[in-house]
Amino acid sequence: MLMRRPRPAHLPLAPAQERMWHAARAGRSADWNVARAVRIRGAAIDVDALVAAIGDVVARHEPLRSRFPATEHGPAQLVVPIADAAPDVRVCPVSEHDLQVRLAEFAGREFDLAVHLPLRARVYLLGPDDVVLLLVAHHICLDGRSIAPLLRDLGSAYTARARGRAPVFPPLPVDYADYTMWKHAQLGDYADEWSRATQQLRYWANTLAGRPSMLDFPLDRPRPAVPCADGASIAVAFAPAVHAALLERAQRGRASLFMVLQTAFAVCVGWFGRSADVTVATAVHGRDHRLLDDLVGNFADDVLLRIRLDRAADMDELIDQVRRVALAAFAHPDTPNPRLKRCLLEDTRTPLFQATLILERAAAAPEPPNDPRSTVTEVPVGAPRAKHDLEFGLVERYDEHGAPAGVDGVFLYPTALFDPGTAESFVARFDAVVRALADGYRGPVRAVFDHG
Q: Was domain 188-451 assigned CATH 3.30.559.30?
């Protein structure tokens, strides 16, 4: 049962944290920084209240005031007492000319997870009524679904502090540490051959046995010895009519929009990597209990989809394969990547996957603290970070009546590996396959795999 529990002397990492901890040690830790900046103009901001509010949020959510050292029992999360957990928040005057450089520089600073608290902030003053708030956190302490509760709590705390009082938050039903212990109790020990953890590891070992560990993409430059996430992005968009047609196609095959898009992606990855056996990834949100909805923490994890591209099969058969593979993968989401790499006897220095597609449903944008008289706009922070060779981040949108309103997003790629023209050719192929599926193409996989 998920409930508050006494804390053990050694609090291990949750599965999603363990993956992130190892990923941060394998490359540049700063590649896993999550940065969000907003510009607030038109009303005087109480900077002291804003700084205090950030401290209130750090006190409320334990992952924001935790350290993650290596110990003799493995990596651990150490929750720092509130009295010792003052966040790194500073107020800095800045000119318009220097703003972007300052934002990118601060967002790119590495966290030493064993020493630093995993959240920092800067309040940049461009004028008395012009402020940019930059929050930077390491992915080990939050995920995409944490942004809404974090900004909601920050807004409540700012309102209270601006009125001269401490915020009164509704109590959280559990903390992230309670979730961690609950999750480990569910999974059991890898030493127990009947535990859920061992069964999931066995599933993945069997599913991925014999797969190509690295696909042979047509790189424009040799792969660097140390991964580099400097990236670029290409916008992608599908109109409401295409969105609606894809939903109809999915419904006919007892699939989802995600599964249809993942089918198109797998075909393109196979074409690009010259392989009929491809492993792609997606993310699962991991918040599988209502008590977790308001927590800030990292619950999201990657799952792998191994797709066999039978050229003689028709596209409906391929969509059905992706549906079955995805459902099985979603039922086995908790195996940390390093453990799986060792089980597969693959080089732990190589990535577990090279290509990922994530589809999310658009939600109302959470608002940072602001005065009704002010305007709030999001500010881009630095260049895109491309942590995988091929990466789609897509959002499906619906209008106020619930009708399909389109799918859009970005394709990210590492500039250390690919020129813009190479990336554009991949996006063009994906666009063509998606539109073919929307138009009802049911012919053999061979036609879209070999010729487009």
A: yes
